[in-house]
Write the structure tokens for this entry.
Amino acid sequence: MNHPLLIAVDGPAASGKGTIARALAAHFGLPHMDTGMLYRSVALALLRWGGDPASEFEAVRACKAGLVPPNDPELRSEIVGEVASRISGFSAVRAALLGRQGDFAGQESGAVLDGRDTGTVIAPHANAKLFVTASVEIRARRRFDELVACGKSVHFEEVLIDIRARDERDSTRADAPLVMAEDAMLLDTGKLSVDGSIAAAIALVDARLA
Ligand code: DC
């Protein structure tokens, strides 16, 4: 029996990892999990219920709320991303979300997971690991353009400060920080188009599997 194909795609905010992971899933015919959505779902449940994002106890209580439907537009908001980054630093929150991600990674069909720790903690045994990144200025510019396209009035400097703060928090937390796994393949999307990034990701995975 062939081993199922498991692909882990990690990287910082606005690196393009989500787009790349979805495209890899479509290309290889695998189910896809955006693990950041789990943290966002907990963050949104906490905010809606009026909980304190600085309280580990309350964040863990929010983990017990059912998942917010993935099409809820608030999940993608900046404030939810910010709170998701804060509560993801709590070990008890990470532990509460571990089983769901491990089960997804263990499916017989194989899977693609994207996030901050899928190659290091959730699926260290993945057949192919990508670490998708771009300079902080390029990632902030992408996020700024997305926000402007949605009709939001924002300043580029503010977006840059937010992305820097998120990078710092996600990379320096004690539990499962954002780091490139030793056996991950680096993909810098800074100078690539969306289609170019996807083609490069497929080529890297194909090369790893060959
Ligand atoms: O990828 P994203 O912006 O949707 O993720 C939101 C936050 O969730 C991110 O800033 C850190 C946290 N996160 C995490 O700690 N581990 C993951 N595997 C995915 C996301």
About this structure: The two ends are 17 Å apart (CA to CA). The pocket of 2'-deoxycytidine-5'-monophosphate is lined by residues 13, 35-36, 39-40, 81, 84-85, 88, 115-118, 166, 170 (CB under 6 Å). The chain has a mean pLDDT of 95. The beta strands are 6-10, 32-34, 111-115, 128-133, 185-188.
